[in-house]
Amino acid sequence: MSKKIILSKGDFVMLNSFIKNHSAGFSEYSLKKLASELQTAEVVEKEELPDDAIRLSSEVQLMETEQKASMTIKLVMPKDVDIKSNKISIFAPLGAALIGYRKGDTIEWEVPSGKKYYKILDVKN
């Protein structure tokens, strides 16, 4: 939850650019949380990222801890979003919440219905 995230230099630059030029529809909470995480992120070359670190194109299996509901999503660029195929934007609140975390981590993120906690069960890159 307040764990340091690990990102590739490319993802770090892309996410910082998004924060500076964010579009409407992204909550102030999400922007502040992502900006805060980026300030303390460990930034490495792409080939140095651990295999289980969530990045662009990662397939992530998660469980919402309160409801015990699990889901598998893939993080993609906005142009590749396909809800029917569980492909969500890396800039969607949940996508931004997951980036840089690893298998076994639990994240907290605000959604329209309040704060939710997600346990990362598996990551495929």
Describe the structure.
There is one protein chain. The protein is of the alpha/beta class and 125 residues long. A five-stranded mixed β-sheet has the order 5-4-3-7-6. Strands 1-2 form a two-stranded parallel ribbon. A hairpin with a 4-residue loop joins strand 3 and strand 4.
Summarize the structure.
With 125 residues, the protein is α/β, with parallel strands linked by helices.
Features of this protein?
125 residues; alpha/beta; two-stranded parallel sheet; 3 helices; globular
Q: Could you say which overall geometry the principal axes of the C-alpha atoms support?
A: globular
Strand content is: 25-35%
Number of strands: 7
Spatial order of the strands in the main sheet? 5-4-3-7-6
Distance between the termini: 22 Å
N-to-C SSE string, H for helix and E for strand = EHHEEEEHEE
- State the low-pLDDT regions, or none: none
Q: Main beta sheet: strand number and arrangement? A: 5 strands, mixed
Give the number of helices: 3
Helix share, percent: 10-25%
Q: What structural class do helix, strand and pairing data support?
A: alpha/beta
- State mean pLDDT (0 to 100 scale): 87
Cα-based radius of gyration, to the nearest Å: 13 Å
List the helices and strands and how they pair.
Elements: E1 6-8, H1 9-20, H2 28-40, E2 42-44, E3 59-64, E4 69-76, E5 87-89, H3 93-98, E6 106-111, E7 114-124
Parallel strand pairs: 1-2, 4-5
Antiparallel strand pairs: 3-4, 3-7, 6-7
